[in-house]
Amino acid sequence: MANLGARTNGTSQNHIEIPIHANGVDLKTSQGVEESNVNYSQRAQWLRAAVLGANDGLVSVASLMIGVGAVKEDISVMLVTGFAGLVAGACSMAIGEFVSVYTQYDIEKAQLKRERRESNNNRGVNEEAQKEKLPNPFQAALASALAFSVGAVVPLLAAVFIRSHKIRMVVVAVAASLALLVFGVVGAVLGKTPVTRSCLRVLIGGWMAMSITFGLTKLIGSAEF
């Protein structure tokens, strides 16, 4: 009976330990999955912002160059205009992103302080982890400016070695279209959306921007004041 009681107690202890151990494993696993999801989400957001910035730079500078080319055949005028658009756009994107992300940083930091006061200043690992997840305005500004510049340099490189005005205009439009297709594919892969639909949206949007800029500039340039 004593041995049976001992075995019963041993079994009882095993039954107690096994659920605790299993729960511990499940908790760690769920935490690992959650952290993995958070990290992937953050990485996807940065990549998506980079694709959008590059797309913005490409469409903006290509439209500027085609618009200027509608009334000026001089290659130097087109290139200077494109370069000015690259610099101005990159600075604008960087400043806008810095202000936006810094505002988000202040809001999230204030929220952390409120949560700490509500939890009676109970500081721990969670708080340090939350601080590490706060957005970095300087990093966001630099990434935005670089992404815009990468897209903007495509039409500049496409036009720099072509002397014929008509051929140059066509090459800029074709290079911009191919780059838009690439950005559309990358955006679709990141967002897990249909590739064809994403490419068509980006491509048609870019064509509309270039066509409208060309048409309005041509109209105003040919008008007599």
UniProtKB/TrEMBL annotation:
InterPro entries: Ccc1_fam
Principal localisation: membrane
Pfam families the record matches: VIT1 (PF01988)
Gene Ontology CC annotations of this record: vacuolar membrane
Keyword Transmembrane helix: yes
Chain segments annotated as transmembrane: 75-95, 140-162, 169-190, 202-221
Catalytic activity of the protein: Fe(2+)(in) = Fe(2+)(out)
Record's function text: Vacuolar Fe(2+) uptake transporter.
Similarity annotation: Belongs to the CCC1 family.
The protein, known as: Vacuolar iron transporter
Native source organism of the sequence: Flemingia macrophylla
